[in-house]
Amino acid sequence: MAASDLSRLIAAAADTIAAHADELTALDQAIGDGDHGLNMKRGFEAVRAEADTFAVKPLPEALKAIGTKLVMTVGGASGPLFGTLFMALGKEISAEPDRAGLTAAFGKAIEAVAARGKSQTGQKTMLDVLQPVHEALAEGKTAAEIVAVADRAAQATVPMKALRGRASFLGERSIGHMDAGARSTALLVRAVAETIER
Ligand code: ADP
Ligand code: MG
Ligand code: MG
Fold first, then answer.
1. Would you say the CB of residue 124 lies under 6 angstroms from ligand 1?
2. Is Kinase given among the entry's keywords (predicted)?
3. Which of 27, 136, 186, 190 has the most Cβ atoms closer than 10 angstroms to its Cβ?
């Protein structure tokens, strides 16, 4: 991937997190501790600050370095999980991946997140967006379709009962609110899909 493409991806991801930080915080206030927007903004601004260093690396190295930076800066439960997602993606992907290569690497990266979080789909977490997005990729869906799948999947966490993370402490009271990590994942999917399309 060209350095300019990776730079645009980093900027798009950081922009959408910054633009939605208050919304992510509000979601986490309802059923968590209200720091998800701040956590994600801190992490993605740290990545943006070093975008020039990341963008010149081969894609696998860039993704690993971004994941490491996210682990160090996001904090909370989501930091190590998003960090694992990017690090594992970097470990599995090739420098110039085709659709099949990206799909396979993304699948492995999701497995790494699930292992790290001791979690699976249906527990009202970021995995409830990651998994359907992986399926959409595997089915050959277009970028616009994948964005719609991600948005619907985040929405589908509203009626779920949280079984992982802080929201799980609320039991039944976690029902009726969107999971913050599912929402931030859908935002990142949109940023990546729309940037790649352009
Ligand atoms: P914290 O809960 O430590 O304050 P954040 O608010 O930044 O961390 O992130 C919370 C998000 O992390 C949740 O909305 C959920 O999507 C995700 N999450 C938490 N625990 C897990 C887990 N075990 N597996 C997968 N995702 C998780
Ligand atoms: Mg939180
Ligand atoms: Mg916290």
1. no
2. yes
3. 186
